[in-house]
Write a structure and sequence with these properties.
The longest helix has 14 residues. The protein is an alpha/beta fold and 251 residues long. Helix 6 packs parallel to helix 7. The protein has one domain: Alpha-Beta Barrel (TIM Barrel), CATH 3.20.20. The chain is 37% helix and 14% strand. Strand 5, helix 7 and strand 6 form a beta-alpha-beta unit. An eight-stranded parallel β-barrel has the order 1-2-3-4-5-6-7-8, surrounded by four helices.
Length: 251
């Protein structure tokens, strides 16, 4: 890790590889120069990068993108929607072979489209966990879908038992569904239901907005796992974790 200044009293942050305090970044097809700039300034603070949606399927530089992240000990994950589409078209084995050939080491397993029958998501987690790091997401992408903490917690427990490394609480890139009300405010009762049942260090909370990130850090401390962080926000998030910003500053 880069030897940063040490004259301020700041919270302890583990060096990579981390199992808590994970920062999960959403790469929406950032140009190569942007990726290189991100890694030169902030690689120490990134643990997982998700190549969002189906971008990896179209990216002619995917292999180079994956290799650049992995040189910095960053796990690279495909988005769950791409996997859901592959499963719906009976192309899971083809997706897995392609991902392996491209150097992908993690897959997100979700049912955000609502296409999977009961129990199928857990089966996918168990099947894929033999070859990949699995991040299993709970929650739907439809803002009108019912949100029930007990149901999310049961799903997360089942996914962890099936072999998921982390479970992801849905918030989307917008921060307006799942964990959040349409105005972006946090469904605190849902969060408390989850952490009352599921180990918080195994949950990645999608938190794309600064106010949401600050809330989770104030509630759970600097080592909370946060996801769907924009490429441009990695260093800013670390200042929130370390209390170097008014939102989380302490004496």
């Amino acid at each position: 890790m880069w030897d940063c200044p040490d004259f301020l009293r700041l919270p302890e942050r583990a060096a990579k590889p981390r199992s808590t305090g994970v920062t999960h970044v959403l790469d929406k097809g950032a140009p190569t120069a942007v990726v290189e700039g991100l890694l030169s300034s902030a690689a120490d603070f990134i643990d997982v990068v998700k190549i969002g949606w189906g971008i990896g399927y179209l990216d002619r530089a995917l292999k180079q993108r994956v290799a650049a992240y992995q040189r910095e000990d960053i796990q690279v994950c495909l988005g769950g929607t791409l996997l859901e589409i592959a499963v719906a078209q009976d192309k899971l084995s083809e997706l897995a072979r392609w991902a392996t050939a491209e150097g992908i080491d993690a897959l997100e397993v979700s049912n955000g489209l609502g296409w999977l029958p009961a129990g199928r998501k857990c089966e996918l987690v168990a099947e894929l966990a033999t070859d990949f790091i699995v991040l299993a997401e709970a929650g739907a992408k439809d803002a009108a879908a019912p949100v029930a903490g007990a149901a999310w917690a049961r799903e997360m427990h089942a996914d962890l038992a099936a072999g998921a490394t982390w479970v992801v609480a849905e918030g989307r890139e917008s921060g307006t569904v799942g964990l959040y009300e349409p105005d972006g405010s946090i469904r605190t009762a849902l969060v408390e239901d989850l952490v009352g049942s599921v180990p918080v260090d195994r949950v990645i909370f999608e938190a794309p907005c600064k106010a949401q990130q600050a809330w989770f850090i104030r509630r759970f401390g600097p080592d909370v796992n946060l996801g769907n962080i924009a490429v441009d926000d990695v260093l800013a998030l670390e200042t929130l974790r370390l209390g170097l910003r008014a939102d989380t500053a302490v004496r």
